[in-house]
Known about the structure:
- The complex is a heterodimer of chains A (89) and B (367).
- Chain A is α+β, with helices and mostly antiparallel strands and 89 residues long.
- Chain A has helices spanning 8-11, 26-36, 41-44, and strands at residues 2-6, 19-21, 55-59, 62-63, 79-84.
- Chain A has one domain (2-84): Beta-grasp domain (Ubiquitin-like (UB roll)).
- Chain A has three helices and five strands.
- Chain A has a five-stranded mixed β-sheet.
- In chain B, a hairpin with a 7-residue loop joins strand 26 and strand 27 (352-355).
- The radius of gyration of chain B is 19 Å and the shape is globular.
- The interface between A and B is medium-sized, with 19 and 18 residues.
Amino acid sequence: MATVHFTSNLRRHVDCPRVESTGGTVKSVLEGAFAANPQLRHYILDDQGALRKHMRILIDGEAISDRHHLSDIVKPTSQIWVMQALSGG
Amino acid sequence: MAPSVMVSTRKGLFEVAKGSRGWTVRDAHFLGDNVTLSLHDPRDGTDYAALNHGHFGIKLHRRDKGRKGWKEITTPAYPRKPETLVDLDGWGKPVTWSTQLIWALETGGPAQRGTLWAGTMPGGLFRSIDRGETWELMESLWRHPARNKWLGGGADIPGIHSICVDPREPDTIRIAVSCGGVWVTKNAGESWVQSAHGMRFDNGPPEEAGNPDVQDPHMMVQCASDPSTFWVQHHCGIWKSLNDGVTWSEVKAKPSSFGFAVAVHPKDPDTAWFVPGIKDEKRIPVGGSLVVTRTTDGGKTFKSLSKGLPQKHAYDVVFRHGLAVDATGKRLVMGSTTGNLWISENGGDAWKLVSSNLPQVYAVRWA
């Protein structure tokens, strides 16, 4: 199973510890995480199901290329990081 | 219940109340987070707060009457955009079907307990009938062909910032859009017609100046006791309507008719307040003197009210939701972009500074 990590910035708003999730693509792995934690979905994806503008997902250190349909391939051993930029004053 | 104010700011939601030492900040919520709007529902005592987390999107929270804590509830969300649909705004830019700001939040009629209305960027109006547990997009407005003429003004995208639920008939609702004019439904959102006839913008093709679909009303309010009277602070001046928004006429004020906020006396349709600034490329108080202008004769004359407000090197801007009058018509609260908060208890004749070091104030509401 792939492991999905979330940043402490996100965990400030939603209780989302690291999770193990099955699936062959980013989308299916995230759906597994959302099934256990529905509130998490709209912190990461927008209304159209695309990755939010300032969010980034890394699979084993590489940024995903399909931000709209989240079709990038995930291996069973993959480490997935859900990250974001921070800005504002 | 003693009057209190909810102040939405760039760094949290603050509750202000009057005690033995006058008006003070009594409590703070969501510290560090961007709270863009709040709502107190007098029907059941519930409070609502809209947050913009930027990277993590727009969120809505609810606090039940008597409770200390807030609970995150459902945020209005847009349906999936059909893949083949070309949906452009008035600038010709693609419209993103995703909630980017909750810019208006109002209760339904007194007997419609649990009904809420939310206006958003990029221009969708939503209704909840269950205290924000679920939301329904008003498809008839969203799919109206004129919506593709709407465009962003100061913001990049259009949005609904004013919702007036008619006190005579709660299925009659008027909204104001920047920039998209004024729209009215008389059947709880099933159908909509444009209602900004008479408004005009400057600095454009003369033949387009009166096009209601692209007017930029900054804020619209309806008189509670005389609901046929509306006031609008428009990008290009002040307008009022005495016939339910069917037609609008311009009103001139000094030192300026430019501004964002407007409040109307709940018991006197001829009395309204504005916060003027130098139009529109500068947006600062005229001469560095912050004043509130008040008419008590339906806009024939205006008085500048400055007692208690800074008169030298003051560059406060009061956003569209930054001025509010209470149900008595006596108390006003005003918050500014530089974190100042004032309250008047005599209709604006004199103001008392509550705080000079709040974060940037987006919205104030009597609770």
